[in-house]
Amino acid sequence: MVQPPKMPGARGLAGSGMGGGMPGMRASSIPMEEKRILGAVFPYLGYGYFLKITDTIARIEGVKASFADVVAKFTVDPQSYAPTSELPDGWTLAPGDGIADAKIEIPAPDGGKPVVMTVTKLNAPAAEAEWKGYLKEQLDRWNGQVGLGGLSIEDWETQLVRVDRPDSSIPAYIFDRDGSHTKSGSIPKSDGQETASGGSPSPGMSAASGGAGASGFKSGAGAPSGAAPPRLQYETPEGWVAQASSPFRMATFRVGAEGSDNEVVVSQALDVPLENCKMWAKQVSKNEEESINQAIASLSNCVHL
Known about the structure:
With 305 residues, the chain is of the alpha+beta class.
């Protein structure tokens, strides 16, 4: 395991992406046709902030009423980055993990395990001109998690709910899509052409209007400039083909025979190897205790360079 340098306060992404996590529904355990993501992306204190719920369509429907207000008023302590904004009745703050800075547990409408909203901050471009490309990539990534294709940034801005935030010239956009289209076998298309029902804003939420706001990128008073990721130096092994990088992928390589979709990804992550191993173990395990045991055991198999 190659451990990336520590980046205090910021997190990178390794594995399958940010999700709802325990004690709510595990994203990997939800059938695609029932899976729904309700989330928001916005710049704040020099980072890209992500508030995200991954759960079933019905469970999210029962808790979404307060979401836009939570997004509009969301604040954190500028030193500890712990959420400080007032939460709706019954919503409680819980510790984060190797990916999320914090989790917020929401009473489930069915009386079962709480619905979980993760709060995650990641490095983001400091220049307003680069924000739209960053935003599109994050929204396309979430769309892919419910089996939908990518959209142009213009389509995203007109289809999603826009939420203005204090002291920011760039609004938050609320993402609310689901995988119900997979029931009918429709095939989502990219770049603004979707045949799936998940391609439209959910009932009760109006579409966004207008662009990204006034000129001059403001993401909160006293915001630090976005930290530049370290520059990688490497030699590409024979048969590996370098692919385009992204905010979450410092490097990507296609490996194997021509036409293969196997890949090796280099990402920044929290410098806590056990948490990263736990995350990966959960992706291939059906049970939480087994995942943790696998994570601990895997540490002894890591190669330290």
